[in-house]
Design brief:
By secondary structure, this protein is α+β, with helices and mostly antiparallel strands. It has helices at 43-51, 93-103, 108-121, 137-150, 167-184, 195-201, 219-224, 229-234, and strands at residues 4-12, 18-27, 32-36, 58-63, 66-67, 78-81, 155-159, 187-192, 204-209, 212-217, 241-249, 266-271, 274-279, 288-293, 299-301, 310-319, 323-330, 333-340, 350-354, 361-364. The protein folds into 2 domains: 4-229, P-loop containing nucleotide triphosphate hydrolases (Rossmann fold, 3-Layer(aba) Sandwich); 238-364, OB fold (Dihydrolipoamide Acetyltransferase, E2P) (Beta Barrel), CATH 2.40.50.100. The structure holds adenosine-5'-triphosphate (ATP) and magnesium ion (MG).
């Protein structure tokens, strides 16, 4: 078992593209770590640089504390599963799984044992003599995983391993993969551009943009407290509301607006349709900000409420299964709020929206960075 340390890493292609641009991150021993970001942000390049399939232009890669930056791929102790699985079509499942061992001249009897054991772990029993063309997509994906695991690397690198599967199979394979990773306890770096997949699977997520790290944190942290508006936009099944606002006061009537959970000053921010409580210690009254609030953290009421709130009227509601996403027109700005399906108000209904201060995030209007000294979210 082994951790991965990446320091000042840059990978520049011959055409000058800085696909990985000055990355620092550490993957802990046994961790299930997701690399998340839009197409072209450098996820595959980073994975290939860890594996040694691309060479680092700057910086270092350490695996299990050893500097492997200049080491050839075969000597790094990593196993990689490529997005298209890269199975050999003319070989049987068994031969595919044990191919890395054959290359290392492991005896045929040992190879047969490994094939038997690994195929058991990955529910491939009875399929060992088939060829990849005779398997379903999900089975092929498991053969690729089996081959990676059979090579007994210290680190498992997975490049979008679920993206070729249909939606239903993808959910099954996701659960399977999480359980397998926990059972094996192998350090795993998992690339995906699907934020829901990263949130569901990972112990921690690195969100990348243009070769750079934009946030590193647990699924809960990146969901509840995105460090910038890029991450705020990227994470979440329903988009976060990001609207212009002005810090209106650090207190109302000389009292904090909301009992700040950790004692930081709490005031209010005014935005289209009214105002919301917010931790305003880092932004003076009058400052223009971008207010970020997730639809899940707003409360919709059809009755009057005391304290800061937004007023508006319902435009449409979208069905999300057990919940509905309601769009509310607040003085010309649309704000999304999720409500239980049975509480869905009819279009045209006047409503009031409220939120607790710790859920209302303030971002710098220019840079889009989260303004510091806001109370940390609990839970
Ligand atoms: N061999 C290459 N030569 C030159 N540029 C490349 C090469 N491979 C990738 N790039 C460029 O490097 C950047 C990062 O590409 P990369 O494949 O790492 O992105 P990605 O995050 O994996 O994207 P996707 O989600 O689409 O797979 C892109 O701008 C891409 O065009
Ligand atoms: Mg890729």
């Amino acid at each position: 078992m082994a951790g991965i340390d990446i320091e000042g890493l840059a990978t520049v292609y011959p055409n000058g593209v800085r696909a990985v641009d000055g990355l620092d991150l550490t993957v802990a021993d046994g961790e299930f770590f997701a690399l998340l970001g839009p197409s072209g942000c450098g996820k595959t390049t980073l994975l290939r640089t860890i594996a040694g399939l691309e060479s680092a232009t700057e910086g270092t890669v350490r695996i299990d504390s050893a500097d492997v930056t200049r080491l050839e791929p075969g000597k790094r102790g990593v196993a990689m599963v490529f997005q298209d699985y890269a199975l050999f079509p003319h070989m049987t499942v068994s031969e595919n799984i044990t191919y890395p061992l054959k290359v290392r001249r492991v005896a045929p009897s040992t190879r047969a044992e490994v094939a038997e054991r690994t195929s058991g772990e990955l529910s491939l029993h009875g399929l060992l003599e088939r060829r990849p063309g005779q398997l379903s997509g999900g089975q092929q994906q498991r053969v690729a995983l089996a081959r990676a695991i059979a090579s007994e690397g210290k680190v498992l690198l997975l490049d979008e391993p679920l993206s070729n599967l249909d939606a239903r199979l993808r959910l099954e394979a996701r659960t399977f993969l999480k359980k397998l990773q926990k059972d094996l306890g192998i350090t795993t770096v998992f690339v995906t551009h699907d934020q829901a997949e990263a949130l569901a699977l990972a112990d921690r997520i690195a969100v990348m943009q243009d070769g750079k790290l934009r946030q590193l944190g647990s699924p809960r942290e990146v969901f509840a407290r995105p460090s910038n508006t890029f991450v705020a936009n990227f994470i979440g099944s329903t988009p976060m509301n990001l609207v212009p606002g002005v810090v209106s006061a650090s207190s109302i009537d000389g009292r904090p607006v909301d009992g700040g959970s950790n004692g930081s000053a709490v005031g209010a921010v005014s935005l289209a349709g009214g105002s919301l409580p917010a931790a305003t210690a880092s932004a003076p009254a009058g400052a223009e900000v971008t207010v970020g609030i997730r639809p899940e953290y707003l409360t919709l009421s059809t009755r009057d409420v005391s304290g800061p709130s937004l007023r508006g009227s319902v435009v449409v509601a979208e069905n999300l299964g057990t919940m509905s996403l309601v769009s509310v027109d607040c003085d010309g700005t649309l704000i999304g709020v999720t409500v239980p399906e049975e509480d869905e108000p009819a279009p045209g209904t006047p409503v009031v929206l409220t939120a607790s201060a710790q859920r209302v995030l303030l971002y710098d209007k220019e840079s889009g960075e989260l303004l510091a000294r806001q109370p940390a979210v609990v839970g």
